Amino acid sequence: MTTERFEVADVSVSRETFSALEQFAELVRRWNPAINLVSKSTIPDLWNRHIVDSAQLFSHAPPDSKLWLDIGSGGGFPGIVIAVLAKELQPQLKVALVESDLRKATFLREACRTLGFNAQVHSARIESLPPAQADVLSARALAPLPALLAYADQHLNTAGIALFPKGAQYDSELSEARRAYLFDVKLFSSLLEPTAAVLEIRNIGRA
Predict the structure, then answer these.
(1) pLDDT attached to residue 29
(2) Which of 112, 114, 173, 178 has a CB 3.0–4.6 Å from the CB of 145, allowing a cystine?
(3) Domains contained in the chain, CATH given
(4) What distance separates the 2 farthest-apart alpha carbons in the chain?
């Protein structure tokens, strides 16, 4: 008997994982009026704008990764989506979420409890945490690239990678970042926006 599979951002998942993502999307819809987890205008297309946009980062993680640190997690994008996918596809991967807004951190903990996994939620500012030595660091719609590289420099291990989805102006952000940092970058076209990209950055150091 063939087990039914589903595609989410070119990632093949089980019915159980797909259902968990749907359940998470419903949690976001339910909590959003009170906490403003995502822009109200994106709620009608929440699946593509937030779930798929987050899930596309998963395939960039090295298969032997042990710790994924998502900073400025907000409504759980991409951190909770990554944790749902990892539970099935990379069970050794631990996901840690950093969110300084206490109400959003409460939502993240509730999402973890409801979906049945143990992602760690830090209710703190990113710069106040001790170095995480993460294998992967992600951030979505958090800050300009130079600031993100400062966080990545603090929290990645020496072989780690940073994954940052960026809009059409990513070239100018890269130029600005290179004034302060040395790094290697690969660009991957966004699955949703042809002018947007996922930046995969490694070997970060001060210029």
Answers:
(1) 98
(2) 173
(3) 5-206 (3.40.50.150)
(4) 57
